[in-house]
Amino acid sequence: MVDKGLARSPEVIEALKAVPRHLVKGVDPELVYDPYKAAVTKPGRDGVNLSSVSAAYIQATQLEQAQVEKGHRVLEIGSGGVNAAYLAELVGPAGQVVTMDIDSDVTTRATEFLKSNGYEQVTVLTGDAGFGAQEFAPFDRIVVTVETTDIAEAWWDQLSDDGIIVAPMRWQSQRRSVALVRQTKDTLVADNIAQAGFVPLQGIGEERETVIALLDDAQQRATLRVEDSTLVDAEALTQAIQSDATHVWTGVNLPQEPRFAPLDLWLATLLNTVVLTGTAGAHEAPDIPQPSPIGRPTLVEGSSMAYRTLRPNGSEWELGVIGYGPAASDLAERYAEAIRSWSPQRRPQLTVTRNPSPTPVTTGLASRSVQRRNSTLTIAWS
Prior knowledge:
This protein folds into 2 domains: about 10-195, Vaccinia Virus protein VP39 (Rossmann fold, 3-Layer(aba) Sandwich), CATH 3.40.50; about 210-340, no CATH class. The protein is about 20% helix and about 35% strand. It has 9 helices and 20 strands. Strand 3 (about 75), helix 4 (about 80-90) and strand 4 form a beta-alpha-beta unit. The longest helix has 13 residues, at about 105-115. The radius of gyration is 21 Å and the shape is globular. The relative contact order is 0.10.
């Protein structure tokens, strides 16, 4: 992870070295040291995992984003034990770490790991993290290790005046870990945005997205992840992707190992997208993406849809768009124009304002706001 730049600061590197993550009960010791794989500790009945030891690269990313210092008071939302131990290493004896989870199985496992490895100073709470831990507030840092769509009211109230919330937020079905720095009582701003995926938040702040199967058989599976299922006609789209595809090529080329995260966030800003994922075999016929835990931003209108694709172009890859359905050509052209307007030099900034504060006035190339229960999320690009 050091070689890949995921762990950069000496403090984070030393914390990662100090904690024996392979001693988590019930996990494969080799798996937990694979930097890109999570070790599931509690699967859910619907296929959505409820708890895991997060992939090491994600934990390193969040630790770097949090900028934890000696003596800090830190609240961790979502317990597993390992990350709380990392935080304890970072805050030192003068600091305090409180970790909480709604699931008693999870907190019991976390307590066992922490106590057996010398981290008795970490306070483990069982309860709905949407209410925070007022008795230990204020916190210099709040590190959220479960996927959320919003900043809970309690987190706003329990964060110090110059505090940082690190949270894996879902926006247009895109998932990003963001470091939100408090600017005012009702404003948080992040320009440190990293791709990440976590198990979903449970409890008062839970807002699950809907997973819609377009293809689902032994050979191939394609699904849409959507925030609002009423916008998707699954039956019509299933029929559409059995028909001939429309291809539009953009003339935009990427290197051999492209990074799609910034581009995908740009597309989700310009277009009202959902996310398409595919499994093995689904890319054969029809032309559905190969397996990806992240998926591709997809423009859906009625019985038509369009999403990005690639083709070889010498030593590079050319970006293109695949469209299906009666409006395939129109959607594919609009999608292609959004790709052509992209530049790797573009930088996003996420501003979160506490409701009912006014949505910030944005300037720049593109912006989009999404209103949640407690906050309004605005992405603006420069």
